[in-house]
Amino acid sequence: MDVLAINKRASFDYDISEKFEAGLVLRGYEVKSVKTGHISLKGSFVTVKKNELYLTNANIPLYKHAGAIANYNPTAPRKLLLHKREIAYLIGKSRTEGLTLVPIRVYTKRGLLKLEFGIGKGRKKHDKRNIIKKRETVKKIERALKNRF
Predict the structure, then answer these.
(1) CB-hemisphere CA count at 13 Å for 66?
(2) Residue 122 and residue 142: Cα distance in Å, rounded?
(3) Nearest CA to 53 among 15, 23, 16, 10?
(4) For a disulfide at 30, which of 26, 109, 110, 142, Cβ 3.0-4.6 Å?
(5) Residue 63: phi, psi to the nearest 5?
(6) In the 8-state DSSP scheme, what is residue 57?
(7) Where are the domains of the chain?
(8) pLDDT attached to residue 21
(9) HEC-encoded secondary structure of 108-143
(10) One digit per residue, pLDDT tens: the chain, 149 residues?
């Protein structure tokens, strides 16, 4: 398993309760671009359209050796492949409880591109501040222990 892109803001901005794995529907030149590491999940999210899930606002630039492709949109929505019962479960969760589907990382699994996304609840600003404070105190303690020995 080779991780190609990570959404670092996902775990900071959201409390992720469950994680799912989905396949991505991409064109050949998009696959080449992603496998060379040219993908950004920053600001991306998963949307629901007609009982299907789409990865929206993920930036996949054009593969440099693909030549000129007319009307290529690097942030176009890309369909996610999941089982029907998983899609129904996710649609229900996102509609009833007001949860968000957040992309976490893109990786390869047996040569195929996969997207890991989670069901997340947005954090408030004061929650984020508490996380930063905890992280800083842990760093101070580790530094103190390291200097002590």
Answers:
(1) 16
(2) 30
(3) 23
(4) 26
(5) -65, 130
(6) S
(7) 2-123
(8) 96
(9) EECCEEEEEEEEEEECCHHHHHHHHHHHHHHHHHHH
(10) 789 999 988 877 888 889 999 999 998 888 998 998 899 999 898 999 989 999 999 999 988 887 788 888 889 999 999 999 999 999 888 887 778 899 999 999 998 999 999 998 877 777 788 888 888 999 999 998 888 76
The closest alpha carbon to 107, from 24, 9, 47, 28, belongs to 24
Name 61's Cβ contacts closer than 8 Å, sequence gap at least 6. Answer: 33, 38, 74
- Helix, strand, coil tally for the chain in percent (to 5): 35, 35, 30
What's the CA gap between 133 and 97, in Å, rounded?
A: 29
pTM of structure: 0.79
Reported as half-sphere exposure (CB side, CA atoms, 13 A), residue 4 has a value of 23
